[in-house]
Amino acid sequence: MYLKLEDVTRKFNKPCIMDVKIGQKSYDPYASAEKIQQQVSKYPLMEEIGFLVLGMRVYHVSSDSYETQNQHYGRSLTKETVKDGISKFFHNGYCLRKDAIAASIQKIEKILKWFEGQKQLNFYASSLLFVYEGSSQAPGVRLSDVTLAEKRGVPKGLLSGGDILEYNNNIHVISSTENGKIEASVSKGLSKFYALHKKAYSKRHHSQLSLKVESLEQDNVWKSSTCLAQEHLNGNVIPQLEKVFCHMPAEIKESANVEVRMIDFAHVFPSNTKDEGYVYGLKNLITVLKNILDN
């Protein structure tokens, strides 16, 4: 018999990590009175809130550094401040990563569905591990139908499967000038070039402006597939793209590069009833995340 361990952060460039203990009780049914008192005193609001932030590590793009919060930070959160406390995990230094929040909600809902359908096990002091990509330079970070794609290896404006690169009218990273030309900021020294990618799954979306990425041997240029003129691009593209992904409309966000895993199973007990404490915690956490997303 052996345990196989997995490094959940292995595929991330700048992983943002948060550990959240789930459930209304962090002590098992056989805990002594002393143990119960000890656990309750650590976070008296556990039963009411249903979860506890044990720690987080968040990458800030602007400073290229991590901000870390320990268990004392989570225990300081109240009913009134828990929403702001959780939202801090999804803030990259100058904007809220709503795509990561939306993807996290979807993954928690899948875990919730499993718990609502099983009556064999009850979990105590178990956690959810959240990981999302904090860097805009990680290849393959999906934001709904919009993808951060590497310019390198993309043949003549096409991605794998024949998907063309498009500019979504709802995303305002590029500003139009008086003569109709388009300008954006791209660094000459960037080794990787990222483009907005939306799958052309429907021919009905003719109102959207398609942009094909042409080969950029001489200069970094975006060339429109319509009548838009070419414009030389300079500066740094990363801050511009960050703004796009931070303010992307919620309805087009789906599956950012996010992992939500159940961890810590030291206190799991057989049961013939639904794990109401864990379900309560999951539902309350989802509610908090949706409130952050809506606001």
What does this structure look like?
With 295 residues, the chain is α+β, with helices and mostly antiparallel strands. 25% of the residues lie in helices and 23% in strands. The protein is built from seven helices and 17 strands. It has helices at 33-42, 46-49, 71-75, 82-87, 98-117, 237-246, 276-294; strands at 15-22, 51-60, 65-69, 121-123, 126-133, 142-143, 146-147, 149-150, 166-167, 175-176, 182-183, 194-195, 209-212, 221-224, 231-232, 258-263, 268-270. The strands form six sheets. Strands 3-2-1-5-16 form a five-stranded antiparallel beta sheet. Strands 9-13-14-15 form a four-stranded antiparallel beta sheet, with no helix packed on it. Helix 5 (98-117) packs antiparallel against helix 7. The longest helix has 20 residues, at 98-117. It is globular and about 50 Å long. 30% of the residues are buried. Residues 138-235 and 249-254 have low confidence and may be disordered.
Low-confidence stretches: 138-235, 249-254
DSSP strand count: 17
User: What is the element string, with H for helices and E for strands?
Assistant: EHHEEHHHEEEEEEEEEEEEHEEH
**Derived structural class:** alpha+beta
Give the % helix. Answer: 25-40%
Strand order of the largest sheet: 3-2-1-5-16
**Structural shape:** globular
Protein name: Kinase
Catalytic activity: 1D-myo-inositol 1,4,5-trisphosphate + 2 ATP = 1D-myo-inositol 1,3,4,5,6-pentakisphosphate + 2 ADP + 2 H(+); 1D-myo-inositol 1,3,4,6-tetrakisphosphate + ATP = 1D-myo-inositol 1,3,4,5,6-pentakisphosphate + ADP + H(+)
InterPro entries: IPK, IPK_sf
Keywords: ATP-binding, Kinase, Nucleotide-binding, Transferase
